[in-house]
Amino acid sequence: MIYLQQKGLSIVEVSMYSVVYNICTAVSEVPTGYIGDRIGRKNSIITGTILLACQAGLMVAAQEKVWLILLAGLEAVAYTFISGSDSALLYQMLASRKMEDGRSVFED
Is the distance from CB of 66 to CB of 96 less than 8 angstroms? Predict the structure, then answer.
């Protein structure tokens, strides 16, 4: 948020950024989860990371306030690609490691 204010956005415009971000997160969570299931967890995380890099580059290059606010949508979609896949991938890695040790996933 500090970066947005440094770029010249007012408090109202920063709030608009947050609204766009939250709406896009809510709308894209299920579709990106479905896509993540189709392309795989690792590919979903890679896709989200690439989108975040693009979003950061575009934020630096953007000159107009409206583009800064619209880029909140890209950021939200990028994070939704990562959000479920990272924990599922970590759980899968933990489960496979415990299975190799001969223990159940639910044992301490």
Answer: no
Q: Which residue has the higher pLDDT, 67 or 88?
A: 67
In terms of Cα–Cα distance, which of 86, 89, 18, 79 is closest to 50? 79
Structure tokens, 6: 């440094």
User: Global pTM?
Assistant: 0.78
Q: Which of 50, 60, 38, 58 is nearest to 82 (CA)?
A: 50
Q: Could you say which DSSP state residue 7 is in? A: T
CA proximity to 3, closest of 62, 77, 78:
62
Interior angle at CA 26, CA 17 and CA 53, nearest 5: 55
Q: Residue 73: pLDDT above 60?
A: yes
CA torsion through residues 14, 15, 18, 24, sign? negative
Residue percentage of the chain with pLDDT more than 90: 48
For tokens 């950021």, the residue is 75
